[in-house]
Write a structure and sequence with these properties.
- The chain is mainly alpha-helical and 202 residues long.
- 60% of the residues lie in helices and 7% in strands.
- The strands form two sheets. It has a three-stranded parallel beta sheet. A two-stranded parallel ribbon has the order 1-2.
- Strand 1, helix 2 and strand 2 form a beta-alpha-beta unit.
- Helix 1 packs across helix 9.
- The protein starts with 6 loop residues before the first helix and ends with a helix.
- The relative contact order is 0.10.
Length: 202
Amino acid sequence: MEETLKDNVFTLIFDLKELKKDIHMLTGDSKASALQAASSLKIPRENCKYEVTTYEKETYIKHLIEDRNKKVMMIGDGINDIKAFKMANLSCTINFKSSQNLSFSSFVIIDNDVLNISGLFRLARYSDFYKKLILFCSLLYNFPVIMASSGVTEFIFGYSLPAFMAAWAMFLSSIVLTMLSNLMECVDMKNYKRKHMKKSSK
């Protein structure tokens, strides 16, 4: 099993650890082969389960979700992973030729580059940041304008905002929020992967 591990798998594990992800390995391979691969990938021995069946994979993921309160993403490439796919919160297949795998997985890696998996987590983190940034800017910009145009500031401070100024303020707000949304296009996942390939190889 160990000799089949590709360089990008080592980089993926390194990157997921950097993202503070807890990694578990479930395989039907023998104990010796599985533990050797886990050692190479620096996956804790207690997180390596070997000679597991389809049902045992499903049961283990159910245990992580229900008993340990974990959010689980299952990654696999075989038909024997389908039950685990269905049990996990998210699932990712790297076998796009299997129609059954495609039916039950949340994501599909079609270019056999598993680094796209860590890229998904990175993209989700960026998306969450920009979502919060846009919400903050929207509140910061629109709340005072709404208060002024609705007469609240006139009641409290004796000042109101003319309707045309409120309209222009809303228009400018839309432009600002659109520009912030377009910042997502600045996330260069290809360059990110190249950097992490070099970093993990050191």
